[in-house]
Amino acid sequence: MATVSTTHEEITLAAAGGIPAVNLRELIDANLYMPFPFQSNPHASEAATGVDEWLSTWGLTDEPAVAAMISYTRPAELAAYNSPTMDSGLLQIMANQIAYQFVFDDRAEDVGRQRPGLLLPMLCESVGILRNGQPPDTPLGAALADLHRQVQERCTPAQAARWAWNSREYVHGLLYEAVAQTDSVPLGSGLCRSIRSLIAGVEPFHPLCEAAQPYELAPEELRHPVMRRLGRLSADAAVWIADLFSAVKEQRAGGVINLALAYQRAHQCSLPVAVTLAIRRINSTISEFEELYGEIRPELSPAGVGYVEGMAGWIRGCYFWSRTVPRYAATTAASAVP
Question: Cβ of 324: how many Cβ atoms within 10 Å?
Answer without folding.
Answer: 13
